[in-house]
Write a structure and sequence with these properties.
about 260 residues, Rossmann fold, 2 domains, five-stranded parallel sheet, about 55% helix, globular
Length: about 260
């Protein structure tokens, strides 16, 4: 009788141990991401990787940072275009392209790098500052920012998705042209800083984080230029070192709400 009790107790102990191991394994398995984090990029030539190798793109460098910091795999879904797609083009895409919309909806991280193509016709003219035209254009761009950001956050909840937009900055080639014509301070205000204020306002209205690239590229007062090593020979696009700087600035934003 005593022997049978001992055998039964041993059997129950083994079963209990197996159950505990099974539960622990299941919990550990559930804590490991079953799918890679999806990093979706929106923008123009910079995230599209103009003039650099694919592995030098700030998206790839940033993805590697995420993998190191969070111990996860990252899948990059890059919707950036080398073409000069303006803000209205992105608004149209986010409202009509179902594949694009699904990628936004399923994203874990979204990075936005939108250039100011709409004002380009006015910033290279040398005879005067087109203040009225710039005011009208940047105001329209502000409206487009609000529509675009609202639709992005409608598809991807900022409480669950890390969404960031960069301020970009003033490229050296453009800054030099403005300075040569003694229009730098005026155009810095009407062509860039007004545009930047609309971007920041729209981002804050939609709980999108703003990556502080302006001060990093143009200094505290906006009057500096990045050293040549960060820029390609065209004076517009970023070199590999410039892309690493952009990735560093994104990394510095942290990973909330992911972590």
């Amino acid at each position: 009788m005593l022997k049978n009790i001992k055998v039964l107790s041993l059997t129950l102990l083994i079963i209990l141990s197996l159950l505990i191991v099974s539960i622990l394994n299941e919990n550990a398995y559930s804590q490991v991401p079953q799918n890679p984090l999806k990093l979706v990029a929106i923008g123009n030539s910079t995230p599209a990787g103009y003039g650099i190798k694919p592995q030098e793109n700030y998206l790839r460098v940033y993805a590697e940072y995420i993998e190191q910091d969070l111990n996860v795999e990252v899948e990059i879904i890059n919707w950036a275009k080398l073409e000069s797609r303006n803000l209205l083009g992105w608004v149209q895409a986010i409202t009509t392209d179902e594949v694009f919309r699904m990628d936004i909806k399923n994203a874990d991280i979204i990075t936005i790098w939108i250039s100011w193509h709409e004002i380009m016709p006015y910033i290279y003219k040398t005879e005067r500052v087109y203040k009225k035209e710039l005011n009208m254009t940047t105001k329209k761009m502000g409206d487009s920012f609000n529509i675009l950001f609202a639709e992005i956050t409608r598809l991807a909840d900022p409480k669950e998705t890390l969404i960031m937009v960069a301020e970009t900055g003033i490229p050296p080639a453009i800054a030099e042209t403005w300075k040569e014509n003694n229009f730098y301070q005026e155009l810095k205000q009407y062509a860039y800083e007004d545009w930047r204020e609309y971007l920041i306002e729209a981002a804050e209205n939609n709980n999108i984080k703003v990556v502080p690239t302006y001060k990093a590229f143009n200094g505290q007062a906006g009057n500096s230029m990045l050293p040549e090593v960060y820029i390609q020979k065209d004076g517009i696009h970023f070199s590999a070192k410039g892309h690493k700087l952009i990735a560093d600035l994104h990394r510095n934003m942290g990973y909330n709400p992911l972590k």
